[in-house]
Amino acid sequence: MEHAIQKQEIICRLCGKAESQFFLRKNNCDIYTCTSCGSKFVSPIPSSTEIYSEDYFTGAGKGFGYTNYDADKQVMVPVFEDYMRQIIALRPSKGMLFDIGAATGFFLAIAGRFGFEVAGVEISDFAASAARAKGIDVATGTLETISDVSERYDVVTMLDVIEHVADPRVELSRVHTLLKPNGLLVINTPDVGSLYARLLGRGWHLLVPPEHLYYFNRSTMRTVLEESGYRVLVVKTIGKKFTLPYIFKTLYMWQRLGVWKWLLHISQHTWLRSIALPVNLFDNMFVIAEKV
């Protein structure tokens, strides 16, 4: 009965409609489905900044993040290089690239090797400090807290980030200010409209509040970008690679089976850590949009 009363009060921040239905309660968060645009979102938005502590990058003992961020991302190098080739195909002149949610600067180091001048921002001081220790310009904070750098960047990247922010439309507006005219915004995010996500429903492994707060489909992503001052150039799926510890951690958080926890422990401390598997469930979308 409580959710029936709230139904009329829950407004989708992606399309602005009050046409939402309760979908799932998970990790003490309520997820709703917008029956107008098909997206899903957490409401109310929790304060989740405490998630991004050192543990998020060095163990995931609290259930979120990575067993070892840099080790888990090492196997993603070919994928990140593919991202860069997609960008350079549209911006061969290169220039300045800014990464939001830069973590330890892993992706920025790759972008630098492709000839970009790079910088970024990261909410976790632990991760941002690790990036700075590598000589990579990553500020601790958010777009809201960094100094004014209006129309400075040729490319802004948000790789597996936009689903984490409290208000995607506000964030996209801030990014618009950062970009030079005709600059590129690059996004990778889960696709709630994908066949895999729809088949699994409430069991989709990427439903992980309060880490993920918004779940876009391709139509809503395009609409929100266009209404925020962008022209969509690319929408596609690019598969990823994951280490065995990351896979076992994800499986354990998804299914809570003891076997996955045991395999996670074994794989973290043996040669199994070096094994990586290509995974493409076609439930992510890679998007490039141009500032107009």
Summarize the amount of helix as a percent range.
Answer: 25-40%
Number of helices: 11
Categorize the overall geometry. globular
**Structural class by helix and strand composition:** alpha/beta
Description:
The structure is a single chain. The chain is α/β, with parallel strands linked by helices. The chain has one domain: Rossmann fold (3-Layer(aba) Sandwich). 33% of the residues lie in helices and 25% in strands. α10 runs antiparallel to α11 (258-268). It is globular, with a radius of gyration of 19 Å.
Q: Features of this protein?
A:
292 residues, alpha/beta, Rossmann fold, four-stranded antiparallel sheet
Give the SSE map.
Elements: H1 2-6, E1 20-26, E2 29-34, E3 40-42, H2 54-58, H3 69-74, H4 77-90, E4 96-100, H5 106-113, E5 117-122, H6 125-133, E6 138-140, E7 153-159, H7 168-178, E8 179-190, H8 195-200, E9 214-215, H9 218-227, E10 230-236, E11 240-243, H10 244-255, H11 258-268, E12 276-279, E13 284-291
Parallel strand pairs: 4-5, 4-7, 5-6, 7-8
Antiparallel strand pairs: 1-2, 2-3, 3-9, 8-13, 10-13, 11-12
